[in-house]
Amino acid sequence: MTPCLLAINAGSSTLKFRAFSADGQTLLARGMVDRFGSKEAKLQLSDARGQPQTERPLDDASHQAALAAVLNSLADQQLQVRAVVHRVVHGGKRYHEPIRIDAAARAALDEYIPLAPLHQPVSLEVVDAFQELDDRLPQIACFDTAFHASQPEVATRFGIARHWHDEGVRRYGFHGLSYAAISRRLPELNLAHGKVVVCHLGNGASACAIESGKSIASSMGFSAVDGLMMGSRPGYIDPEVILYWQEHEGMGVKDVRRELYKNSGLLGVSGVSADMRELLDSELPAAREAVELFCYRAAREVASLAGALRGLDAVIFTAGIGEHSAEVRGRILQQLAWLGFELDHAANLAHSRRLTTQNSRLPAYALPTDEEGEMARQAARLL
Ligand code: ADP
């Protein structure tokens, strides 16, 4: 049996996982449990090259059964899991590095549920299920907030009374594992000491200002709602809109949260879908408007983050939309032409790494994100 690290990325209905060599450097297998936590749960496992190895229904809604099936399917491939690494959204002010999840840390992570009410509980449920399944299996948490710990104080503060900030009401920033993975690749673009804005454009979307490999500002703040418009989240919104909903529409906390996390963004504006691919294929005016707003907001945010950086050497696109949508990248770069980006249409359509012409004053790139790989490397260092 080959020892491996299992990186887990748990979402509300899918659990994605990747197995890496014990040093965290080599991908050995990947898979997912679709409809995780339901009776329709289905396990898929592929080898490192993406060749399918297993695909079967689980017939059991429990998290433990699904995780046991994941471990067994890896064992069938002669892979023995030595440690499990979890993507945990919020590490609060305390956790700036990956940690071994012991009883004290597990209790502390509950404290951050109010700061990430939709995302934090899912990963903690998976931690608990593994603990019940095999309490000798080391579990490690890697935090999406951690990469942003390098931000200067001014980038973390809201313009509200000091005591709120001291109590934790401040900007944290998210998608940190994705930014850390991109940051690791900056030397190969000669940007190790550069000023870069990275746009992580997926279902969740954010942008991050990186200088010399470190986060100095980001579009997401206290929660994963702020900043860019996303699949079903609005991004930045005037807080008075929320008061209006409460005062004049009788909406309570739950209604507002549903509106902010589930009914807004591409879905809310288009009225048809949160999925960028579907909207790009649609002829509906509202779908086109949703795409236009998505690109407009992203371009505005890049310029804002360039302000935080006091300069700009490159823009990098990553995640589902950033890696795969030439249309979205093209529109954003064309809106940013004034900053010095000259789009190379053919390169963009071909999904080349470099998206701008050789004469472009500033370069733009598309790079694949590697959140699980980043987790595995961080965990290997910790172990
Ligand atoms: P998550 O935040 O769930 O990890 P992803 O990074 O997988 O999300 O991104 C999902 C988004 O990427 C969806 O809006 C999807 O439509 C979009 N996407 C994936 N492939 C393409 C493509 N070829 N063209 C346009 N959008 C795409």
A few lines on this structure:
With about 375 residues, the chain is α/β, with parallel strands linked by helices. Helices cover about 40% and strands about 20% of the residues. The protein has helices spanning about 65-75, 105-110, 120-135, 155, 160-165, 175-185, 240-250, 255-260, 265-270, 275-280, 285-310, 320-325, 325-335, 345-350, 370-380, and strands spanning about 1-10, 15-20, 25-35, 40-45, 50-55, 80-90, 100, 140-145, 195-200, 205-210, 215-220, 315-320, 365.
What's the architecture of the largest domain, going by CATH?
2-Layer Sandwich
- Uncertain stretches: none
Helical residues, percent: 25-40%
Number of strands: 13
- Sketch the topology as an H/E string, one letter per element: EEEEEHEEHHEHHHEEEHHHHHEHHHEH
Account of the protein in words:
- The chain is α/β, with parallel strands linked by helices and 383 residues long.
- The chain folds into 2 domains: 142 residues, ATPase, nucleotide binding domain (Nucleotidyltransferase, domain 5), CATH 3.30.420.40; 183 residues, Nucleotidyltransferase, domain 5, CATH 3.30.420.
- Helix content is 38%, strand content 21%.
- The chain contains 15 helices and 13 strands.
- The strands form 2 sheets. It has an 8-stranded mixed sheet with strand order 5-4-3-2-1-6-8-7, with helices on both faces.
- Strand 2 and strand 3 form a beta hairpin.
- Helix 1 crosses helix 3.
- The protein starts with a strand and ends with a helix.
- The mean pLDDT is 96.
- Bound molecules: adenosine-5'-diphosphate.
- Adenosine-5'-diphosphate (ADP) binds next to helix 10 and helix 12.
